[in-house]
Amino acid sequence: MFKTSQQPAYVSVISIVIIGAVATSIAISLLAGGTNATKNSLTNIRLMRARLLADTCVEEALQRIRDTAYTGTFNLSLSSGACSATVSSIAYPNYTISSTGSTTGAIKAIIATVNQINPKIKVSGWGEAGATSSVPVVNIITRVGSASAPADNGTQGGTLATIVPPAGLVAGDVVVIVASYRGTPTLSISNTGGQTWTSLTQVNGTTITGRIFYTVFNGTWSANPSVANSSGAVALTAVMHAFRNVDPSVIDVAQVGASFVAPVTPFDVNRAGITTITPGAMVLAAWVSNDDNTWALQSAGWANIGLPQYRNLSGSDTSVSTAYKLMSAVGPSGAAINRQLTLGGDDGVYFILALKPKP
What we know:
2 helices; disordered N terminus; single chain; six-stranded antiparallel sheet; Pantoate--beta-alanine Ligase, Chain: A,domain 2; mainly beta
């Protein structure tokens, strides 16, 4: 339940240490009590870790707000798991922090609100958001890395965009490419890099097109993979994201894609959500616009994959933005709202789908 609080925003390190020690003691005593007690103990410890991870990102967000009046999305990777947070503000000094912590077997979501910055931060609310609970999967989907051609705010014309894959991939990782072109030719994988790619349905807008490709990495790149467009020599972009702990079948919910009209002030593009099938699924969303827009997510629980955007300045310009949301339980993901900041008010295409976690 979400509760209001006037307590200071910062959780002491010693408190976390104490909680960890208590959790360990509980684990030891319950392990001695039998199989069921062991399972319950492990579940509780995982949930506690996930909560602490989510709180960690809230703490980081509070520091960023205090230092720079920060808004945006960031991710932290820690030894016990990972967390992500999205900070939004309708009007200074009111902020909302949506944080998610994930560790093996558990996810927790936290919402915190701030209503004062000076002379000191005042947290008006800090509590769990929705039904966050243990996840009946051993593996939480995580991001391995990202790459793009071109780099953000770079130049890459057609007809071939070659990507240098991120380091650290292992066999079984799932690699997703979001490709776009400033026009409506056919997009395809040119050099496979020794992988077997699945091409999802291409979506065409008025002056821009987008397509998603994915593969289960076999452990070795024979070459750097590339995306080609069938005609034209202006902005061709390929953005690659790699994920771990995805089921070999890859897809939990099939892609839904469509074109969108140019948004009006404040230039929000609303990608309707989907309903996941498997606990622990990761929902992916992508937006492709026909200008070199910068983007900022507006929806709680969503975080960028890699950079907030990948702009291509070739010809008449394009921009690709991607985001994800980890789903602790089966259900609706909620809408993914992404705001065009710089040069807002451009049409394009968008996609949404879900990855299935390993059991």
